[in-house]
Design brief:
The chain has helices at 16-25, 41-50, 92-110, 124-129, 137-145, 170-175, 179-195, 221-235, 249-254, 266-276, 312-324, and strands spanning 4-8, 34-39, 57-60, 72-76, 116-119, 151-156, 159-163, 202-206, 239-244, 260-263, 282-286, 291-294. It is α/β, with parallel strands linked by helices. The protein folds into two domains: 4-149 and 279-324, Isopropylmalate Dehydrogenase; 158-275, 3-Layer(aba) Sandwich (Isopropylmalate Dehydrogenase), CATH 3.40.718. A twelve-stranded mixed sheet has the order 3-4-2-1-5-12-11-6-7-10-8-9, sandwiched between helices. Helix 1 (16-25) packs across helix 11 (312-324), helix 3 (92-110) crosses helix 5 and helix 7 crosses helix 8. The radius of gyration is 20 Å and the shape is elongated. The two termini are 17 Å apart.
Length: 328
């Protein structure tokens, strides 16, 4: 059987519906991966016309009776008023609907009816307008599954990157680089890689300061916090090295020196992956009861509804979800 990947439609005012229908028609997806959308049929039909997509939408019920491999299967939720839908605009209606698509996708994944999720973009302002008590996908997924420690990992080609900190100012991110936090994170990242099927994963930890601080000349975090955490992790049996200079560690990881790199702050890892291939950098959320991949771009309100968006990132997200798909 082919992997069955569930794709919630995302914000209807953004490019989510367009990249979804385009991905369903892509030659690397069609015939190799079965897709199940959660969304509204009329919105997807309109998106198919915009993208000139030769696509049949096959509605199925909540138990997925009638799944077909030659169509875009759909769990239809009637929650968008087409007369009120305006592309490129923040909308409480679209924010609420996007949340409902995710919630239904989580139900399907949690019950083992699908192999993984690949998500399209949602809009934080639209979620707020709809009074949804979450700021983004990761928080929604963690809340709906009661998962306390989801991990974000980026993958582009053979480069995998974890993030010790993400949405913090640079000043606060530096303060958050502590021995205890990094040690715990090394443990979680190693276990997450094992869940992806990588036996005894090899990790590298990027340095925080230029030249890893040069033994205190440019900062003391490497000697005081990072190196001791790595040493303790190695005593526990984890295959981890570092700190490694951030200007070279990602290059060597891409060449196969390590299975993944732990980036210490947001842009350190984002820049490294996106410079390899911006469109094919995919975000994975690990530590949930199921695997979730995602495009690494937003709702693109400026081009939504124009049929001009590239679906490369969506295709990669679906393909990566299928590659790693498993039923825990």
């Amino acid at each position: 059987m082919k992997p069955l990947i569930c794709v919630p439609m995302g914000d209807a005012a953004g490019v989510g519906p367009e990249i979804l229908v385009a991905a369903a028609c892509d030659r690397t997806v069609r015939g190799k991966i079965s897709l199940l959308a959660v969304g509204q049929a009329e919105v997807l039909s309109r998106a198919a016309r915009l993208m000139d997509a030769d696509l049949e939408i096959n509605r199925v019920d909540a138990d997925l009776v009638g799944i077909r491999e030659d169509a875009l299967n759909l769990v239809h939720l009637d929650n968008i008023d087409l007369n009120a839908l305006v592309y490129g605009k923040v909308s409480a209606m679209c924010g609420k609907a996007a949340y409902e698509y995710i919630a239904e996708a989580v139900r399907l994944a949690s019950s083992g009816k699908v192999d993984a999720l690949a998500t399209t973009p949602i809009n934080k302002e639209s979620l707020k307008a709809a009074a949804i008590p979450y700021v983004g996908h990761t928080e929604i997924l963690a809340g709906l599954t009661s998962s306390p420690n989801p991990l974000t990992m980026f993958q582009v080609r053979d480069l995998r990157v974890f993030f010790l900190t993400r949405h913090l100012s640079l000043l606060e991110a530096c303060k958050a680089v502590t021995r205890a936090r990094l040690l715990d994170y090394i443990r979680h990242c190693s276990k997450a890689l094992e869940a992806l099927g990588i036996e005894r994963p090899k990790l590298a930890v990027a340095g925080l300061n230029p030249h890893c601080g040069e033994h205190g000349l440019f900062g003391g975090e490497e000697d005081l916090e990072i190196a001791p955490a790595i040493a303790e992790a190695r005593k526990e049996g984890y295959a981890v090295e570092g700190p490694k200079p951030a200007d070279s560690v990602f290059h060597f990881a891409l060449q196969g020196a390590w299975d993944a790199v732990i980036s210490l702050y947001h842009d350190q890892g984002h820049i490294a992956t996106k410079m390899v291939d911006f469109d094919r950098t995919i975000s994975l959320t690990l530590g949930l009861p199921f695997l979730r991949t995602s495009v690494d771009h937003g709702t693109a309100f400026d081009i939504a509804g124009k049929g001009r968006v590239s679906a490369v990132s969506m295709v990669e997200a679906v393909r990566l979800a299928a590659l790693y798909a498993w039923r825990p």
